[in-house]
Amino acid sequence: MAWILFVLFGGLTLVGGLGLVVTRNVVHAALFLLLSLSAVAGLYLVLLAEFLALVQVLIYGGAVIIVVLFAIMLTRNSEYPHISDNRQWPLAAITSLALAVIFGVAMWQSAPSATNSNSPAFADLGNSLFTRWAVPFEIASIVLLVALIGALIIARSDSSREK
Amino acid sequence: MVDLVYFQLLSAALFCIGVYGVLARRSAVLIIISIELMLNAVNINLVASASRLANSDPAKFLHFDGQIIAIFVITVAAAEVGLALAIILRMYRNRSTVNVDEVNMMKW
Q1: For domain B4-95, which architecture applies?
Q2: Which of A90, A107, B27, B107 could lock B8 by a disulfide, CB 3.0 to 4.6 Å apart?
Q3: Could you give the maximum distance between any two Cα atoms of chain B, in Å?
Q4: Which residues does chain A have within 8 Å of residue B71's beta carbon, measured at their own beta carbons?
Q5: DSSP β-bridge partners for residue A25
């Protein structure tokens, strides 16, 4: 059963990723990203990580896709919707294939033997997040705040600054 | 049950697709999307390791610490995509293009 779900969601993830990098239409690329990220949420469920699956759907499926679609909408240029890749794409394909071979061989040769499956309760996750990981948690909130203010300052129009 | 190595191989494949997207695309928005794909590949790896490699020694990583690191990766990815798209909007306003090979004013 787990194998069927793994093949299903893993296949959807890879199809979404491949569609993302080969499609000529920017909006289709964003929708392929949505497919891929939702399938990753399914993979998290196969791994018994329910909280991560919820977070994945909320943040990626909701927020990030909306922001990306807004950016595509606001930055369309003359060649929209049919975009072109740059001239180095064969080189890029060779590089990524070589990287895939290296990763694949390395991971296959050093495959870990431990195969127990465990699923933390929500309460354990929360406890750990606010005790063991309290400092990174606070730093993450500062990062989010700085990114929010920075994005506002960078993206606002010039007229409001010269007022 | 699916072994850890298959999740690792899937994660590696997704990462390499993201690398291809970053290297081959011209539009800055698509490069950002490909980076999101790579971050998700890393997250799959983290969560799979957290689920399959148990450890109860509190001085080391606990068995679900991989999930917590994945939560931080998602947080940073959300901050990154917001900031990057603000920069892309500014670039589009100044140069009327989002193609990274046309933004070459500082290229020697």
Answers
A1: Orthogonal Bundle (1.10)
A2: A107
A3: 56
A4: 52, 55, 129
A5: A82
